[in-house]
Amino acid sequence: MSAHTIRPASIDDVRAIRSIYEDAVLHGTGTFEIVPPDEAEMAVRFTAITGQGYPFIVAEDADGVVLGYAYANAFRARPAYRWSVEDSVYIAPTARGQGVGGDLLTRLMEIAAESGFRQMIAVIGDSGNAPSVRLHKRAGFRMIGVFQQSGFKFDRWIDTVLMQMPLGAGGSTLPDETRYPGTLYDR
Predict the structure, then answer these.
(1) Are the beta carbons of 83 and 72 closer than 8 angstroms?
(2) 59 in helix, strand or coil?
(3) CA dist., res. 58 & res. 133, Å (int)
(4) Which value, in Å, is the radius of gyration of the alpha carbons in the chain?
(5) N or C: which terminus of the chain carries fewer CB neighbours within 10 A?
Protein backbone atom coordinates (compact mmCIF):
# COMPACT_ATOMS: atom_id res chain seq x y z
CA MET A 1 0.00 0.00 0.00
CA SER A 2 1.14 3.52 -0.81
CA ALA A 3 2.52 5.68 1.98
CA HIS A 4 0.58 8.64 0.60
CA THR A 5 -2.77 9.56 -0.86
CA ILE A 6 -3.63 12.00 -3.60
CA ARG A 7 -6.55 14.39 -3.31
CA PRO A 8 -7.72 17.69 -4.74
CA ALA A 9 -5.86 20.62 -3.23
CA SER A 10 -7.72 23.24 -1.22
CA ILE A 11 -6.95 26.79 -0.17
CA ASP A 12 -6.00 25.33 3.23
CA ASP A 13 -3.01 23.65 1.54
CA VAL A 14 -1.46 26.91 0.35
CA ARG A 15 0.91 27.25 3.31
CA ALA A 16 2.41 23.78 2.64
CA ILE A 17 2.45 24.40 -1.13
CA ARG A 18 4.28 27.67 -0.60
CA SER A 19 6.87 25.99 1.63
CA ILE A 20 7.57 23.30 -0.96
CA TYR A 21 7.81 25.87 -3.73
CA GLU A 22 10.07 28.13 -1.68
CA ASP A 23 12.60 25.31 -1.44
CA ALA A 24 12.42 24.80 -5.21
CA VAL A 25 12.95 28.51 -5.88
CA LEU A 26 15.85 28.90 -3.44
CA HIS A 27 17.69 25.64 -4.15
CA GLY A 28 16.64 24.34 -7.55
CA THR A 29 16.57 25.20 -11.21
CA GLY A 30 13.20 23.57 -11.96
CA THR A 31 11.63 27.00 -11.68
CA PHE A 32 13.15 30.18 -13.01
CA GLU A 33 11.70 32.32 -10.23
CA ILE A 34 14.42 33.91 -8.14
CA VAL A 35 12.46 35.19 -5.13
CA PRO A 36 9.88 32.88 -3.53
CA PRO A 37 6.35 34.30 -3.56
CA ASP A 38 4.74 34.85 -0.17
CA GLU A 39 1.68 32.96 1.04
CA ALA A 40 -0.74 35.65 -0.16
CA GLU A 41 0.67 35.50 -3.69
CA MET A 42 0.51 31.68 -3.68
CA ALA A 43 -3.15 31.92 -2.63
CA VAL A 44 -3.80 34.27 -5.57
CA ARG A 45 -2.11 31.83 -7.96
CA PHE A 46 -3.98 28.84 -6.51
CA THR A 47 -7.33 30.62 -6.83
CA ALA A 48 -6.58 31.72 -10.40
CA ILE A 49 -5.67 28.19 -11.50
CA THR A 50 -8.54 26.38 -9.81
CA GLY A 51 -11.00 29.16 -10.64
CA GLN A 52 -10.35 28.62 -14.35
CA GLY A 53 -11.21 24.92 -14.09
CA TYR A 54 -7.69 23.49 -14.08
CA PRO A 55 -6.78 20.57 -11.79
CA PHE A 56 -4.63 21.14 -8.69
CA ILE A 57 -3.81 18.13 -6.48
CA VAL A 58 -1.66 17.28 -3.48
CA ALA A 59 -0.10 14.11 -2.09
CA GLU A 60 -0.25 13.74 1.67
CA ASP A 61 0.97 11.18 4.16
CA ALA A 62 -1.17 9.36 6.74
CA ASP A 63 -0.80 12.30 9.13
CA GLY A 64 -2.09 14.80 6.56
CA VAL A 65 1.33 16.32 5.83
CA VAL A 66 1.53 17.56 2.24
CA LEU A 67 4.43 15.79 0.50
CA GLY A 68 4.04 17.38 -2.91
CA TYR A 69 1.66 19.00 -5.31
CA ALA A 70 0.88 19.13 -9.02
CA TYR A 71 -1.33 21.22 -11.21
CA ALA A 72 -2.16 21.83 -14.83
CA ASN A 73 -2.55 25.33 -16.16
CA ALA A 74 -2.96 27.01 -19.53
CA PHE A 75 0.00 26.28 -21.76
CA ARG A 76 -0.40 29.65 -23.43
CA ALA A 77 -3.19 32.24 -23.24
CA ARG A 78 -4.04 32.39 -26.96
CA PRO A 79 -7.32 30.63 -27.87
CA ALA A 80 -5.76 28.09 -30.23
CA TYR A 81 -3.81 26.61 -27.29
CA ARG A 82 -6.94 26.07 -25.16
CA TRP A 83 -6.86 22.26 -25.44
CA SER A 84 -3.25 22.07 -24.18
CA VAL A 85 -2.09 22.35 -20.59
CA GLU A 86 1.28 22.76 -18.94
CA ASP A 87 2.02 20.61 -15.92
CA SER A 88 3.90 21.53 -12.76
CA VAL A 89 5.04 19.03 -10.13
CA TYR A 90 6.88 19.93 -6.92
CA ILE A 91 7.91 17.57 -4.14
CA ALA A 92 9.02 18.34 -0.57
CA PRO A 93 12.73 17.59 -0.11
CA THR A 94 11.98 14.88 2.47
CA ALA A 95 9.60 13.07 0.07
CA ARG A 96 11.76 12.95 -3.06
CA GLY A 97 12.60 9.55 -4.49
CA GLN A 98 9.56 7.87 -2.92
CA GLY A 99 7.25 7.76 -5.94
CA VAL A 100 5.25 10.82 -4.95
CA GLY A 101 6.08 12.72 -8.15
CA GLY A 102 5.14 9.82 -10.39
CA ASP A 103 1.84 9.29 -8.61
CA LEU A 104 1.01 12.99 -8.77
CA LEU A 105 1.87 13.27 -12.46
CA THR A 106 -0.08 10.12 -13.36
CA ARG A 107 -3.18 11.35 -11.53
CA LEU A 108 -2.83 14.84 -13.01
CA MET A 109 -2.70 13.37 -16.52
CA GLU A 110 -5.81 11.27 -15.79
CA ILE A 111 -7.77 14.26 -14.51
CA ALA A 112 -6.70 16.47 -17.43
CA ALA A 113 -7.65 13.77 -19.96
CA GLU A 114 -11.00 13.12 -18.23
CA SER A 115 -11.65 16.86 -18.39
CA GLY A 116 -11.11 16.86 -22.14
CA PHE A 117 -7.68 18.43 -22.51
CA ARG A 118 -5.73 16.91 -25.41
CA GLN A 119 -2.04 17.69 -24.83
CA MET A 120 0.12 18.11 -21.75
CA ILE A 121 3.34 20.08 -22.11
CA ALA A 122 6.20 19.87 -19.63
CA VAL A 123 8.36 23.00 -19.50
CA ILE A 124 11.29 21.83 -17.39
CA GLY A 125 13.86 24.22 -16.03
CA ASP A 126 17.40 22.95 -16.60
CA SER A 127 18.40 20.20 -19.02
CA GLY A 128 20.49 18.90 -16.10
CA ASN A 129 17.31 18.38 -14.05
CA ALA A 130 17.51 14.59 -14.49
CA PRO A 131 14.81 13.71 -11.92
CA SER A 132 12.18 15.83 -13.67
CA VAL A 133 13.14 14.69 -17.17
CA ARG A 134 13.13 11.05 -15.97
CA LEU A 135 9.74 11.54 -14.24
CA HIS A 136 8.19 12.76 -17.47
CA LYS A 137 9.84 10.08 -19.63
CA ARG A 138 8.50 7.36 -17.32
CA ALA A 139 5.02 8.88 -17.66
CA GLY A 140 5.25 8.61 -21.45
CA PHE A 141 6.24 12.15 -22.40
CA ARG A 142 8.50 12.54 -25.40
CA MET A 143 11.26 15.07 -25.82
CA ILE A 144 10.25 17.99 -28.04
CA GLY A 145 13.25 20.26 -27.76
CA VAL A 146 15.54 22.42 -25.68
CA PHE A 147 15.72 26.19 -25.46
CA GLN A 148 19.40 26.51 -24.80
CA GLN A 149 20.68 28.98 -22.23
CA SER A 150 17.24 30.58 -21.93
CA GLY A 151 17.35 31.31 -18.20
CA PHE A 152 19.93 32.78 -15.87
CA LYS A 153 19.91 31.67 -12.23
CA PHE A 154 22.56 30.90 -9.63
CA ASP A 155 25.13 32.78 -11.74
CA ARG A 156 24.82 30.45 -14.71
CA TRP A 157 22.85 29.97 -17.92
CA ILE A 158 20.18 27.29 -17.75
CA ASP A 159 18.33 25.47 -20.54
CA THR A 160 14.58 24.93 -20.77
CA VAL A 161 13.45 21.44 -21.78
CA LEU A 162 10.14 20.86 -23.56
CA MET A 163 8.39 17.48 -23.39
CA GLN A 164 4.91 16.55 -24.57
CA MET A 165 2.26 13.90 -23.86
CA PRO A 166 -0.98 13.42 -25.82
CA LEU A 167 -4.03 13.06 -23.58
CA GLY A 168 -7.08 11.01 -24.53
CA ALA A 169 -7.46 11.10 -28.31
CA GLY A 170 -4.68 13.68 -28.56
CA GLY A 171 -4.75 15.32 -31.96
CA SER A 172 -6.33 12.36 -33.76
CA THR A 173 -9.88 13.73 -33.50
CA LEU A 174 -11.48 17.14 -33.27
CA PRO A 175 -12.38 18.33 -29.77
CA ASP A 176 -15.98 18.90 -28.78
CA GLU A 177 -16.11 22.70 -28.65
CA THR A 178 -19.28 22.59 -26.55
CA ARG A 179 -17.42 20.76 -23.76
CA TYR A 180 -14.33 22.93 -23.37
CA PRO A 181 -13.06 22.05 -19.87
CA GLY A 182 -11.60 25.38 -18.78
CA THR A 183 -12.64 29.01 -18.71
CA LEU A 184 -9.64 30.52 -20.47
CA TYR A 185 -11.53 30.71 -23.72
CA ASP A 186 -15.29 30.61 -23.76
CA ARG A 187 -17.05 31.30 -27.03
Answers:
(1) no
(2) strand
(3) 20
(4) 16
(5) N
pLDDT of residue 184: 63
pLDDT tens per residue, range 57-69: 999 999 999 999 9
Measuring CA to CA, which residue among 44, 46, 38 is closest to residue 13? 46
Q: Report the alpha-carbon distance of residue 88 to residue 108 in Å, rounded.
A: 9
How far, in Å, CA of 149 to CA of 146, rounded?
9
CB-CB contact of 75 with 84 (8 Å) = yes
* 145 strand-pairing partners: 162
- Provide the CA 54 distance to its chain's centre, in angstroms: 11
Across the chain, the runs of DSSP E, i.e. the strands, are 5-8, 56-60, 66-74, 84-91, 119-125, 142-153, 156-166
Write the pLDDT tens digit of every residue in 73-123: 999 988 889 999 999 999 999 999 999 999 999 999 999 999 999 999 999
Residue 61's DSSP bridge partners are: none
Pairing relation of β-strands 119-125 and 66-74? unpaired
